[in-house]
Amino acid sequence: MLGPDTGAAEHGGAERESPRRASEFLRAHHHGVLSDWLEAMSALHAENPQRPSWLLDHMPLLLASLADALEHGEHERADPLSDEHATVRLEQGFDVGEVAAEYALLRKCILRRLEGQPRPLDVGELERMEEALDHAVVRTVRRFAVERQRDIQDLEREARVEAQRSLALLDALLAAAPLGMAFLDLDLRYLRINQTLADINGAPPEAHLGRTFRQMQPPELADLLEPLLLRVLRTGEPLNGFEFATPPSLIPQRGKRVWQATFYPVLAPLGSRLLGLGCAVVDITQHKQTEAALQRAVDFREQLLAILGHDLRNPLNAISASAFQLARAEELEAPERRAVERIRKSAGRMGRMITDILDFARSKLGSGIPVSRQSMNLADICQATLDELQVSHPERRLLFESSGDTSGQWDPDRVAQVLGNLVANALQHGGLDSPVATSVRGGADVVLMEVHNQGEPIPAELQPRLFDPFKPSVGASSSYQKQRSLGLGLYIVHQIARAHGGRVEVRSSREEGTTFRVYWPRRTA
Prior knowledge:
With 525 residues, the chain is α+β, with helices and mostly antiparallel strands.
């Protein structure tokens, strides 16, 4: 009689040897197969440890669906899950090979697990399980391919729409551009051209498309421009601002025009290859005509400056010299001597006006007032200038004092011109009984020149534009507003100070009088 253990062992042996169905095996070893499969996937994607966790999403349900399909003999039970599996993997960026590899590893894990089992599958069960797996693979791969093709078609459709949109924007840009524009391929055939350039070429835009540059241009222009286009294609370097005129033989038909063209290479995205070239052509005839008119104006200005600087000075110098000789004559009566003195002063004032006009023209139309620096002593130049002015104005008192180091690098003629203009301004607007005081003080880096006079102050509303040329009068309440001169003296003072790197300041009140300060840096920055 067998004990419980022996009977159980015999019964257990019978159980181990009895065949079983594939669906029972899949359910019984569900977790073991998944564990083997996940370990295999982890080894396959060792370089990307995050990837296997993605692959575990649908396998538990897929194994259960395969078991149901085998139990009921209906492979279609697993189809919805296979379709979902394919769709999700496509969205996650898998390729078809990776999807097929999932099933290949699953099949391998199932068969390996079967080899280790003492109970074999029933006759035909292994074949049925293989068919179920094959059906799932085919269904998933087919669904994956369909979805992938659909995505590709959607992308192609979007690309076509975007391309049509880009071409529409390009055509709109070409049509609205005020200059002629075109795009040519590597054979110099027109791909796109706007109406402006088509009108320049004398043919409608549609007549250009597909035809070469030489076919659409007169031989003279083709011979001139085609080598330039080919050079752009050959070197990949743009050609900017190339100017050319209508050939003489075409002037009767097209008129005398001047054009400026730019040719540039057109590259594929990321500069991978050359697609062709673009060109932009603008009519600069009016610009050239304006340029020529400006040049004529410049030439006239130079002629006018030459007349002011030479032809007017010669008779003025003769007047001044004659007045000087007359002033030395002993037989002149007092009224005659005063008349001669007026002639001499007027000639001197006219000379200063000519100098101011020349300097104004240079500052506005040229490169600024020229200065010629040299080593000099500012106090010495100021003393000499005041001595000359004192001779011209013997009835007025001109005071001068200096202190400190007054040496530096300046233009002595311009320094004398600044002081002469400031003293002349002080004599004109200062009190007749009060002196004009000039002082020069040397500092560490700057020498300060001051010209002071008592008298009617400068109106507050005039001070902000005191150094502007041709200052307009705003009334007639002061001597500054009543003056009829050109108003260039203080402007020239300001420009000369700037040319030396310095500046001019003014303070004016009825109590303190009027003081102009000119700062002369010893050296430029």
